[in-house]
């Protein structure tokens, strides 16, 4: 594999509280190339925080530290705010969970997607419109001309998420972080949305960090998987070899996934005592 | 299909129809509120009067006839004449121009300034917020009229300075509202989405936060107009607003005060004008708030 797109070493996110600082991400290291990396873990395991820390969008008073946090040859921790702004969207962008809340209710969809473009490039209006229509078409929205002038409340959830994808991919970033992009959607449109993300990143040769709590989904969709627990990476494996995972937490998670033709009377519950530290 | 049916169609066939239908519904809701209609009529009358003052006035507002000074209301002088024999009705009509000018300019100056300050303060938070809101609090802690008085005294009397002074004293209220709105919008996910597209703070405030704050601002400005009129009249009364011979209502009351016991109409007529117009703006503002506020929609 060539030089990694994103190189993270010993990333920590700390929140100071009255009881002393609490670390929500405790020294994780990983690299992402032009591949699909899945990060799985339960709620509160720090997977979303990791995504935000990469974009330096951790809300204050959170503090991000790392031995190394580099995108290509840019140090993300030392970049100025202005440099960060050119990186966000243009080089790394992020698809958020729920399109209902992630789109500005009083702006038309066309204007919002176009904005991502005008933030980074100076383009005449007509070109912006053309690019937005192309992008809407690329996320398989059937009638781009009509959707262009709709407001977010006028489209369905699945369509909203496709709009979100269009908005985040239109500046053609190198790395896309998808933070549970399908958890707010109906099961029926999930596969479709995933397919669109997959097609677009393969076409453009982007890297993808796919954050989810759905082990099955991630093992089918990604090349490589990181399992996070309590702010740490407990297991790293190839997606196909998830069955061979060794860490007790991963094994426990896999065991508690219900199967068709179930013979067990009760699903096993995670026994956390064996690996969690004080 | 009649026009009304077309406007109220449940499934409008075009965007235009939906928009017109919506305006029609707002208009109807406003009509159902009789006080708001009265307010709207008063404001409309004020605007028409100011626009066509020469047609409404029966005499010149400035030239007087000393032989007819302090005449009681009659067929020739509907509201009587003042101490220089000027027709009070004509002066009240021309005075509406000054009132409208003051109200409009103050709204144009103060509302955007307050909106911007509030949005910046709310968006950045921290020290920016503390400093800006500290200044706002200082302004808010002083009575409007006294503060305006101080500014006019410093700037010198005159209608332009009165407008500037009133604008300086009225922005803090708008800044407060804008800040409160911004605080609720700032943490919403779509603002984060714009942030991670790489938009600058100026862009986020200008394109995403200000439009969302503006509806409550418009209503607040309409409600405040009565206060602006009163402050302007107060400054005029104290001789610091419009200067003679301009027919400003507050100044007219002030001149009439000397004759209030024997020639009551000199001070009373412009007083009525101020009361009626302030009431009109108040009623209209209340009605607009009820109709436009989505949080109350459908309750009546």
Structural description of this entry:
The complex is a heterodimer of chains A (278) and B (300). Chain A is an alpha/beta fold and 278 residues long. In chain A, 35% of the residues lie in helices and 23% in strands. The model of chain A has no long low-confidence stretch (mean pLDDT 86). Chain B has 12 helices and no strands. At the A-B interface, α2, α4 and α7 of A face α9 and α10 of B.
Q: What is the gist of this entry?
A:
The complex is a heterodimer of chains A (278) and B (300). By secondary structure, chain A is an alpha/beta fold.
Give me the side-by-side strand order of the main sheet of chain A.
7-8-9-3-10-11
Overall body shape of chain B: flat
Q: Which band does the percent of strand residues of chain A land in?
A: 15-25%
Give the N-terminus to C-terminus distance of chain B in angstroms: 28 Å
* SSE ordering of chain B: HHHHHHHHHHHH
Distance between the termini of chain A: 38 Å
List the total number of helices of chain B: 12
Number of helices of chain A: 10
Q: What integer is the average pLDDT of chain A?
A: 86
Low-confidence runs of at least 5 consecutive residues of chain A: none
What labels describe this entry?
A: 278 residues; alpha/beta; six-stranded mixed β-sheet; five-stranded antiparallel β-sheet; 35% helix; B: 300 residues; mainly alpha; 0% strand
SSE layout:
The complex is a heterodimer of chains A (278) and B (300).
Chain A: E1 6-15, E2 22-32, E3 36-40, H1 47-54, E4 63-65, E5 68-71, E6 74-75, H2 81-87, E7 92-95, H3 99-102, H4 109-120, H5 125-138, H6 144-148, H7 157-169, E8 175-179, H8 187-204, E9 207-212, H9 215-221, E10 224-229, E11 232-238, H10 248-255
Parallel strand pairs in A: 3-9, 3-10, 7-8, 8-9
Antiparallel strand pairs in A: 1-2, 1-4, 1-5, 5-6, 10-11
Helix pairs in contact in A: 4-5, 4-7, 5-7, 7-8
Chain B: H1 3-7, H2 15-31, H3 34-51, H4 53-56, H5 88-124, H6 126-141, H7 144-155, H8 159-186, H9 189-195, H10 201-237, H11 249-256, H12 265-292
Helix pairs in contact in B: 3-5, 3-12, 5-6, 5-8, 5-10, 6-8, 7-8, 8-10, 10-11, 10-12, 11-12
